[in-house]
Amino acid sequence: MTDHTVTQLSELMQRSRSSITTLIESGKLEAYDAAPDGRYRQYRVTPEALEKFRAANKAAKSKQPKQRRVAKPVKRYV
């Protein structure tokens, strides 16, 4: 399997390209620059790095469902 581009990851993970780039630049998602001498950065993420990222974030999620707020009853003056 080939390495993923930022655009492919944004479609796959349903996130914006800028949020994927932020994850890469913050070090949370491992990537390499496919064009180090180029004008722009062209990040690539290996399938192994993507699985490592998903495994780390799956464990961090809470297993308890969020509690919903219950609407207070409305006082009616009749």
Automatic annotation (TrEMBL):
It comes from Fuerstiella marisgermanici. This is Helix-turn-helix domain-containing protein. It comes from the Bacteria. InterPro entries: HTH_17, WH_DNA-bd_sf. Residues 60-78 have a biased composition (Basic residues). Residues 5-57 form the Helix-turn-helix domain. Residues 56-78 are annotated as: Disordered. It holds the Pfam family HTH_17.
